[in-house]
Structures are given as structure tokens and as C-alpha cells.
Design goal:
With 223 residues, the chain is an alpha+beta fold. The protein folds into 2 domains: 104 residues, Glutaredoxin, CATH 3.40.30; 106 residues, Up-down Bundle (Glutathione S-transferase Yfyf (Class Pi), Chain A, domain 2). Strands 2-1-3-4 form a 4-stranded mixed beta sheet, with helices on one face. Helix 4 packs parallel to helix 6. The longest helix is centred in the middle third of the chain and has 31 residues. The model has no long low-confidence stretch (mean pLDDT 96).
């Protein structure tokens, strides 16, 4: 059975959605990143970068959320179009999320909520880049039903992973400035696979306090 190394943070949630959409049986292996379990030698053998998610599928180990999405899509021939034009669009938008929205969102969250001292330049820099990326996505979704075109794909799943928690960056307004993105996220959130993904963390006993142990676990290079 496939093993899914999981924490309910944005990148693992992308994979949780994909697994739900595929209807694959899997074993959830909790990795408590607030306790630093991602740095333990056993986990580092799976992902030398010490990040979740990871899957082990019939002895094949895959780390990085977008690598996992691609691996599963290609293996099961779903959620990645075969038509060259649609496939190219899907891959392009998948990478747009991977290299743009995801890292800029992560840095915005860090400087808005977790930096030990307020740094106005960093807050503004990353918030404005997140806003710019959402505006690019808004324009795309004004032209197409899904990021890749007419078909729901792994690019949309990748977007959902971060966009579902946009309020943590934008506050109460969340995605209201980007109605097309908001509509897509709401549509995906209503899917049974997304609801199953949201339930994954409930039976897990994970640390929630953001204390010095958590700070050292998440940002060891800054200490």
C-alpha cells in the first residue's frame, strides 16, 4: 500500500487532494513538523531536503509535492491532458504555482506571522508578489475554466493547496479581490476528494503550539 508522509500544511494538501481524486488506498504517516520529525534520519533518507510531503509507492520514493502530482498523474493517466496544447498549458501553470505562488506565499506567511522582528520591506515585498501572482491567475481563469483549459488537472490541485488558506496572508478579505480564483477554490473544496483531504489531520495528534521548539524545527538555519 502507498505510504503518504503527511502534515496538514499547503504542499501535502495538494497531494492529499490528488490521492482522493484517484481513489487510491494509502497509509497516512504523520510527520509532526512542529516537533522537528522532518529532520530525523529516517525521514531524511526519504527526502534529503527534510520537507513533507513524500510518498512511497511500491518501493518507489517520490518527494516534492509537484513531483508527486506528476508521478501519480503519469502513472494513472489522469488529471494530465494528453492533448499537446492542453498538456503544455497544464504543465506551464503547474510550474507557475511551483516556482511562484508557492514560495512567495510561504515567504509572505513567514514574514507576516513568524519572523522574530517586523521587517516592513520583506512584508511588502512578498505580499506584493503574492498579489501579483494571484492577479495573473485571475486573468487566466477569466479566459479558461481551469488553469490548463477545459479540464480539471494537477495544476488546479496545486493552486488549491495554497489558495485554500489565502486568508492567512490576506486577512478577512481572503480571495475576494480575485473572484475567479475564489470560485475555482470553492468549487474544488466542495469536491468529495477535497473533503476527505481536509479530514486527514483530524485523527492525528500533532503539535499546534508555536513555541521555541517549533521555531527551531521550522527555521533551524535562522538560529
Amino acid at each position: 500500500m502507498l505510504q503518504f508522509y503527511f502534515h496538514p500544511s499547503p504542499n501535502p494538501m495538494k497531494v492529499a487532494l490528488m490521492l482522493g481524486e484517484l481513489g487510491l488506498p494509502f497509509e497516512t504517516v504523520a510527520v509532526d513538523i512542529f516537533k522537528g520529525e522532518q529532520h530525523e534520519p529516517g525521514f531524511r533518507r526519504l527526502n534529503p531536503n527534510g520537507k513533507v510531503p513524500v510518498i512511497v509507492d511500491d518501493g518507489v520514493t517520490v518527494f516534492d509535492s509537484h513531483a508527486i502530482l506528476l508521478y501519480l498523474a503519469e502513472k494513472h493517466q489522469r488529471f494530465l491532458p494528453s492533448n499537446p496544447r492542453a498538456r503544455a498549458a497544464t504543465l506551464s501553470w503547474l510550474q507557475f504555482v511551483a516556482t511562484g505562488l508557492s514560495p512567495f506565499s510561504g515567504q509572505a506567511v513567514h514574514f507576516l506571522h513568524y519572523a522574530p522582528e517586523p521587517l516592513p520591506y520583506a512584508k511588502n515585498r512578498y505580499l506584493k508578489e503574492v498579489e501579483r501572482h494571484y492577479q495573473v491567475l485571475e486573468t487566466r481563469l477569466s479566459e479558461a475554466r481551469f488553469l490548463g483549459g477545459d479540464e480539471y488537472s494537477i495544476a488546479d490541485m496545486a493552486l488549491w493547496g495554497w489558495a485554500r488558506g489565502a486568508a492567512y496572508i490576506f486577512g478577512d478579505k481572503a480571495l475576494t479581490a480575485y473572484p475567479k480564483v475564489q470560485q475555482l477554490v470553492q468549487t474544488l473544496t466542495q469536491r468529495p476528494a477535497a473533503q476527505k483531504a481536509a479530514e486527514l489531520a483530524k485523527p492525528l495528534k500533532l503539535k499546534t503550539d508555536f513555541d521555541e521548539q517549533t521555531r527551531r524545527a521550522l527555521f533551524p538555519q535562522n538560529l
